[in-house]
Write a structure and sequence with these properties.
This protein is globular. The protein is 44% helix and 13% strand. The two termini are 22 Å apart. The chain has a seven-stranded parallel β-sheet with strand order 3-2-1-4-5-6-7, with helices on both faces. The chain has ten helices and seven strands.
């Protein structure tokens, strides 16, 4: 389970907010303000940002002054809601649709964000799905869909974004992995393989760009209280809670705070994985 978010799940659709065009110069104008927030002038792209962990990350970055590109794949209404909430608090955001498991759509997405905001300073690879099954019942299509979405998208997104970061000698990339990539989990061979692969990929690319002003790190959430947890049978929830030393679910905002730390304060941190799991995994 772990990331507790899936593109297959459904959520009651809230009233859609209209997409609002942004002034491309807005981030740079904010940077000139001496009272600007720490990330003013920066542009962040968050994949899978229409709900759950991605939504919390997008809002946290916007609260610190970043202009945020809110990526979604299916539910534009939810993505519009995120943008609307960011704008209500004085932030800058815009919706961008793309299936990040498709390399062509990834390249279009990054080009569209650069066209709208002029650059990409911060990338958070959060998009992911789950398709759980016991190993012998899991087919190749299910395995590949999960790996393509959860790991292939990270490869494609970083390849598309890093050249733009390298031009300015500054970038922050955070990949949202999972404790399942560290420990494994029943019925999640595809998900565990993808999330473990993400950690290896993070380390390699971090080493290759360590001298370029670009930091690349991962965050590994534990059991986070999103829609997927809420629909689990109470008896199963009790079993899962018993696995958590802190005895409670994590909150999406707690993952967002970890991402924000790496983006805002992690200038000497790269190739690292920050565990945010209530003690489920304690290995360094």
């Amino acid at each position: 389970m772990a990331s507790t978010r899936s593109n297959k799940g459904t959520k009651a659709k809230r009233a859609a907010a209209p997409e609002v065009e942004q002034n491309d110069a807005a981030p740079e104008a904010a940077a000139a303000d001496p009272a600007a927030r720490p990330l003013a002038g920066r542009v962040a792209l968050v994949t899978g940002a229409s709900r759950g962990i991605g939504e919390a990350i997008a809002k946290a970055l916007a609260d610190e002054g970043a202009a945020v590109a809110v990526n979604y794949v299916r539910n534009k209404g939810l993505a519009d809601d995120v943008v609307s909430e960011i704008q209500r608090t004085g932030g800058t955001a815009r919706v961008f649709q793309a299936n990040v498991s498709d390399e062509g759509q990834v390249n279009t997405l990054v080009n569209d964000v650069i066209g709208a905001f002029g650059k990409v300073d911060i990338l958070v690879n959060n998009a992911g799905i789950t398709e759980d099954a016991w190993f012998q019942k899991m087919d190749f299509l299910s395995f590949n869909r999960v790996v393509d979405t959860n790991l292939g998208s990270v490869f494609s997104m970083m390849k598309a974004v890093i050249p733009n970061m390298e031009l300015r000698g500054w970038g922050r990339i955070v990949n949202v992995s999972s404790f399942v990539g560290q420990t494994g989990n029943l019925t999640q061979a595809n998900y565990a393989a993808a999330k473990a692969g993400m950690l290896g990929l993070t380390k390699v690319v971090a080493l290759e760009y360590a001298t370029k002003g670009i930091t690349i790190n991962a965050v590994a959430p534990g059991f986070i209280e999103t829609e997927m947890i809420k629909v689990i049978a109470p008896k199963i929830q009790e079993m899962l809670l018993a696995r958590i030393p802190m005895g409670r679910w994590g909150q999406p905002e707690e993952i967002a705070k970890a991402v924000l730390f790496l983006v805002r304060d992690g200038s000497y941190i790269t190739g690292a994985c920050l565990n945010v799991n209530g003690g489920v995994v304690t290995a360094f």
